[in-house]
Amino acid sequence: MGIVGKVAAAAAIVVCGSVFSLALAGSDDQSDAHADKAQLHKLIADYQRPASIPFPEDNPYSDAKSELGKMLFFDPRLSVSNLISCATCHNPSFAWEDAQPLGSGDKMGQLGRHTPTILNLAWSEVFFWDGRADSLEEQALGPIAAAAEMAQPLDELVDELNAIEGYKTAFEAAFPGEGISEDNIAMAIATFERTVVSNLSAFDRWVRGDGQAISASAQRGFVVFNKKARCANCHSGWNFTDDSFHDIGLASDDPGRSEVLGGDILKHAFKTPGLRNIVERAPYMHDGSLQTLSEVVDHYDNGFVERDSLSEEMQQLGLTGDEKTDLIAFLKTLSSNDDPIDLPVLPN
Amino acid sequence: MPVRHKNVLAGFGVVCVLGVAGISVALAAANHEVLEADKKFSAKTLEISVGDTVTFVNNDSIKHNITIKKMKFNSGLQEPGRDVEVMFDKNGKFKVRCGIHPKMKLKVVVN
Known about the structure:
The complex is a heterodimer. Chain A is built from 15 helices and two strands. Chain A is mainly α. Chain A is globular, with a radius of gyration of 21 Å.
């Protein structure tokens, strides 16, 4: 996939002043879009892509580990039915989601939440919609073992993989002298997942100084995103997430983060998803209840449920039709047309 | 931003205990203050001793939370201006996070 190299190549980011003047010149709402060039320089600086993928000290990158992780990720034998792989739901053809409102699990049972993408997880702090896993390694084993998802007892999985000669060889290459274990399965999958990074998008080229990379409408939308619509209060940084938890007022009784923390705090709050390749990731939200970006924008504008747990960030926005159009034009610039992924040949 | 330390027993930093079999020396528990501002703790790592307390001071304008999974500690919502005090009575390494803003994290090493 060559993703590591692509990310490393994104190190040098040039900010061009002409970009900002374009963004301002096209704005219809000067009161909200007005910002001097210095302010916009600062805004754009917040969206610089990182130079390289971070790997944890206790699970450093190796080619052998990543290749093994990729094999495991695409292998349906990791489920008790031998029919569901991680990639069944985290499908690279749908930006590593499944294009369904809610995920499906063992015996095609419907799950309670929308399948989140695995794009750019190397930069995440906590995992799952409710943040119940503290590391990608911990997350990786969760769906495999969960009764409603892949329902695979992990000790039996170790035995099954040990019976496949090609896996014994692959684990030996990735973890010399350690053999196959639950921990090593998790570390290999997590290593592969950290290499799944969205490519450069038109927005990134604009940030680097190509003033023609995105349309005037998208440039106005960037200002709306950061100012009047307040999106960037949570969808912040190059991956467009603060990795934090908010109740955004969806009409769902899912307790979300409060179930993890206990008590009444953060009821109905879920982790802010990143927005890279968001066009390819419909439907939207943790419950998959919104079908289009237009519905999403309308929700944030004034379509949310008022309740005690609602995030303080949620406010009536009063967006005009043109502002909504510009906002969506901006969101479309986050698509990166990622290269098709080469499927691994699995040992049998 | 540096971590401010303060001894609970200021001026009595070391308490000497005379015993029948000899003299033993017990260190008084200390209190360490960690500030919260701009969705960050004022330190990334804090080394303390068993029995010490840490006071987390929310100097931010938004609510935070102190969660220490390994200790099964959860402060609930921490309003701006409110302190949360935690006593570390076992040695080891403890990851402290804000449960709302998990990028706010601190490693506490208890010796």
